[in-house]
Amino acid sequence: MAERDAASRHLPVLLQRCVDLLAPALAEPGSVMIDATLGMGGHTEGVLEALPHVRVVGIDRDPEALRLASARLARFGDRFTPVHAVYDEIPEVLERLDLPGVQGVLMDLGVSSLQLDEAGRGFAYAQDAPLDMRMDPTRGRTAAEVLNTYDEADLARVLREYGEERFAGRIARRIVQAREKAPLERTSELVDLVRAGIPAAARQTGGNPAKRTFQALRIEVNDELAVLARAVPAAVEALVVGGRIVVESYQSLEDRLVKRAFAAGAEISAPPGLPVVPETHAPFLRLLTRGAEEADAAELARNPRSQSVRLRAAERLRPTPEHLRPGRGDAGSTGGPGGRRPDRTRAPRAPRSPNGPRRTA
């Protein structure tokens, strides 16, 4: 029942294209792929069916997704290994499983079908629900906590940076005014505030006016961009030579991070003007797509959720040069691409005090 439930609720985006891109790296018996964002297991199922000699390690931070995917993939036995983790923890997952490297990595980013379809999770602006939005509902700060504790400047920053919302300041002001009367608790309250904060003319196009605000809050609650900035370099480091990585993004902020990470590996890192490029500065990645691929008409007709997908893929050509390995340089202290991951036992980031620096929780 759970297997049928997961399969009926999740249609994987660009499945055949993902399999085709990964297959050359997974040709040898005993090959291992990491599905870094397992969800309900649709992509993993496609790989396991198409490549019967491959093992997949499926990572997800959502316990319910792991439960549903595990039931769906139970018929593959020990060829599938579920792991409860955030996908920037790939190095720790491989160490725990005693895997020195893998031949493939797949990332299907953003919110999953499971999270969108379950109204009680608070991800969907079209359904009234508690303001939660945590991908792992067992830990972390909820959207309600963000809305009710961040000061106006921080709320505007989140909406502007993560939602690319033109009216971030107006919406943040409405939120602060509303919570002075009573804490915000429901998604419908937030939708009404966003609608009231956006000029009537701007509400006529672009779909639901709350879409960008919900995206921004989801990214903030789950620290999505910081996790992605650490996860892509970690995934590349997990690949053996000849291994391949495929990433599907669904909004420009994600795609920009992936593009930059791949480009950094596919470019010569030596100073310009050298007569001969040292091997240590030669590219260590080969781009497999020309720019970002989008869904064609057939995919859109089959799966409307593929409308915003941007797919990029790369192949590892050689080990990463020492000077470009994750953790080198200033990135390690900032949590930027390749940097150190924060201690996950720490409290989530607290809002700035109106009169001073950011408070600690």
TrEMBL record:
Keyword annotations of the record: Cytoplasm, Methyltransferase, rRNA processing, S-adenosyl-L-methionine, Transferase
Pfam families: Methyltransf_5
Basic and acidic residues bias (residue ranges): 312-328
Main location: cytoplasm
Name by which UniProt lists this protein: Ribosomal RNA small subunit methyltransferase H
PANTHER family from the UniProt entry: 12S RRNA N4-METHYLCYTIDINE METHYLTRANSFERASE, S-ADENOSYL-METHYLTRANSFERASE MRAW
Function: Specifically methylates the N4 position of cytidine in position 1402 (C1402) of 16S rRNA.
InterPro entries associated with the record: RsmH (IPR002903), SAM-dep_MeTrfase_MraW_recog (IPR023397), SAM-dependent_MTases_sf (IPR029063)
Residues engaged in binding S-adenosyl-L-methionine: G41, G42, H43, D60, Y87, D108, Q115
Protein's GO biological process: rRNA base methylation
Enzyme class: transferase
Gene: rsmH
Highest taxon, organism lineage: Bacteria
Family: Belongs to the methyltransferase superfamily. RsmH family.
Gly residues: bias regions: 329-339
Record's GO cellular component terms: cytoplasm
Catalytic activity: cytidine(1402) in 16S rRNA + S-adenosyl-L-methionine = N(4)-methylcytidine(1402) in 16S rRNA + S-adenosyl-L-homocysteine + H(+)
EC number: 2.1.1.199
Localization (cell): Cytoplasm
Gene source species: Cellulomonas pakistanensis
Region annotation (Disordered) ranges: 296-361
Listed GO MF terms: rRNA (cytosine-N4-)-methyltransferase activity
